[in-house]
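Let us practice reading a record.
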Amino acid sequence: MSERRIYLDRGLGETRGVVTLNGRPERLLVRRNDDDPRLQFGTRLIARVASLEPALGTAFLDLGNGAQAIVAFKPDARPVRGQALEVEIRGEPRRGKLAVARAIGLGEGPPRIIVEAPDLANALETLVPGAKLVEGGTAREVADEAEAEALTAVHLLPGGGEIAIEPTRALTAIDVDLSDRKGADAKRVTRQANLAALGMAARLLRLKGLGGIVVIDLVGRGHDGNALMAAARAAFAPDNPGVAIGPVGRFGTMELSLPRRTQPLLERLCRLEGGISDRTLAQRLIRRLQAEGQAQPGARLSASCVPEVARAAAPLAELLALQIGARFVITPNPSFPRERLDVSAA
């Protein structure tokens, strides 16, 4: 029987919410203090129709303060340029893509928020009704573990084997590999690996915030299509509504279409050119300083990191000083490897 639990890590400048499934991270929701609330999943707004693309059945919306979104419309319900609409954000923006909104009805007045997105505590409780919300040190450990797994590309399957998850601009590719999985009956081994891979892929795609077209390259030949289809439907049921699953193809691949709701975590936590972003590293540095300050209340603290991370950490350091006092210093060190973060107490 599946067991889900929820955790909330309230950090400085960043709040992280985690859902675990049988002890493993299933979802990681990240909110930062400089996020635009207009673009968060679940926000309701009054928007203005800025322009139309009738051939695509799409309208571009002005949400105010430079924020934009798109909304689909049917030929018999085309909005008018300049018209006010009440909309709800159903898909957060991604790199190169605007947020996606759902039209609720006609609106009045200038672009503005009318109902803010649920905070992370409410969002977690909606995902797992009746679950006890865990906070504090345990939540921080779980969130750190979820973040590390979300940034990993290759994941070990229980019983042996592995899957690699690699998002591209067009789709997300998942490769199933037997690796060191052993067994006397090769057909049974491959079947078990594929079934395990479907369950793990579903959890990891939710954790990573990935949607759209997904292609799973199954291992082996002569697949039991009915068993795999049933397993996929069960594994991806929590992503409904909006899931479409195709049968196993002649080349041993299964294709799925999953709804896109939140910004992918790789975009949230990493730079466009790859590697963890300055802001994400700054959050890690501040968490380490905060933990050291709580462990040693009277100590002077020092931290070192590359200059870019030090700059990103500056506004967060102001928040930390209000909490533990101005008893720490962050020193830029251009000779450090980019992801090196040193924290010490004296």
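A brief commentary: The first strand starts at residue 4 and ends at 10.
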